[in-house]
Structure formats: structure tokens, C-alpha cells
Amino acid sequence: MTADFPKITIVTPSYNQGKYLEDTILSVLGQGYPNLEYIIIDGGSTDDSVAIIKKYENQLAYWVSEKDEGLYHGLQKGFAKSTGEIMAWLNADDMYHKKSLFLVVDLFEKFKEVHWLMGSNTFFDESGYPFTYDDQPYAQRWSQTRLLLFNGHFIQQESVFWRRGLWEKAGGFISQDYSLAADFELWIRFFRYEKLYSTSFMLSGFRFRNENQKSFNQRNQYLEQVYALTDQEKKISPNLHLRFCRLLISLTKLIPKRKWREKIIANILQLPPKIIFDRNEGFVFSKR
What we know:
Layout: E1 8-14, H1 18-29, E2 36-42, H2 49-55, E3 62-65, H3 71-80, E4 86-89, E5 95-96, H4 100-110, E6 116-118, E7 122-124, E8 130-131, H5 144-149, E9 160-163, H6 164-169, H7 182-191, E10 196-199, E11 204-207, H8 214-217, H9 219-236, H10 239-251, H11 258-268, E12 274-278, E13 282-286
Parallel strand pairs: 1-2, 1-4, 2-3, 6-10, 7-11, 10-12
Antiparallel strand pairs: 4-9, 5-11, 6-9, 7-8, 12-13
Helix pairs in contact: 1-2
């Protein structure tokens, strides 16, 4: 049966996240996906994380608990063990939505031109209740141009899946040079080779915590690394193109209707179409 399903590798890096870790593990194992390679890399937790991992170890492809050099070092160790055709990582407090792994496979199978994919941005509160918010037009459609012009605010890491071929083409590693923004550095490398497609389907959610959350407590440091990375990439990418796009976007302010402005800006940014559900055709591309 598993031969009918491509192998999916999910890596969860963890350190003293026992309060949330079991929810994360169950969101992965509870998918019921028959060809899953689930790897957990624990950084030597001193809370109950190891006991939680051991509770599910017979369903894991690999796990270890030992001192490491942080989140991205743990991820690199995990992906070095991986063999899946489709890859992703899920941090130890985030969660997948129901049947998301089956959905990812269906989308990759139908749209062969898609090599990496981001689900609709969704979130969980401290208690694990899901919610959404979206305050920008085209906020969940991305291109390399948009990434560089708007400094990458933000591709939702936990909702991103990619094919192994893209991972290998982009070097097959998680950078250890950026303590907070190595995810963003990986997206920059992916964009050099393939478009990022998005979908209106919910794949995963980011959990907002009330305490000890790096993405909140160290947000300014994260953004400093993001800006440094975009500045480096702009030196590689044609700067004239970005300037021209910025000029065109500024001129759209003269267009009276917001709907027209948004459509034109989406074209300027070369945003790929979004994968949505159509009652008659199922999965389809849409430029909305």
C-alpha cells in the first residue's frame, strides 16, 4: 500500500517544549499517512519531552535527544537522516491540520510544475484553537520579486512543503550562519530555481505562545537577518528590474479602483496563481 504513496519526511526539532510537543506529534501521526518518515531531533531537553517522544518512538523513523547547537543544527541533523520524496519541518509547538499530508500529495501529483508549496496562513492560540487573519491583498501569493521588494513579510514556514529534487538543487542543507532566519535563507535559495505556489487549503498552523517565543521576543534580531539576506540577494538579482517594478507599483496609486490596482500589482510582482477548490473541476489554478 505504501508504494502507492510517495514518502513524506517531516522533521521536528525540539528543546524543552514538553507543554506542546505531544500535540505536535499527534498532529503528524494522526494524519494516518501510510508512507511517513517522521524524525524528531531533541536538543537534550530537561523537561518531560523525552518521555513524550518515547511514548511514540515505535511510530518514528528516527529520534535522538542530545545537546546540539540550536534549532537549525537540529534540523540539519534531521534532514541528513531523511529519504522522503516530499519534505517539510514542523516545530515542536506547531500543528498540522487534518489530512494535510494527503492533500499535499494530491496537489503535487496534479500539478507537476509545482516544486514547493505554501498552505493558507493559519494560526493557533496558546490553547490550540485555530484562527486566521490576512490584512493584505495577494498576501498569500509569493514571487522572488515580491520577496525582495517587501523584505519577505512573511512566508509561513510550517505550511511549506517541497520536493526533494528542489532541496538537492538548492544545496541540500539548512544554513548554520543565521541563528534566527535560516528558514528565510532557504526560501531565497529555493526561489533561485522554482516558483513558490500557494493554496487556499489549510495545511498547518503557527502557535502563538504567551512565553518564551523566539519569533516574538527576538523579532527585531530576526528582521535584521532577513534584511541582510535580502540585501545580499538584491546584489545577485538584476537591480534594474526591481527598481522598475517599484516604479510601476508607485504609479498604480493613480488608478482609481482598488480592485484594478491589486490586479496590476500582482502582475508586476509576477505572482504565481493560487491553487483553490472549484466545485466542478476540483483543484484549479486561480489568479485571485
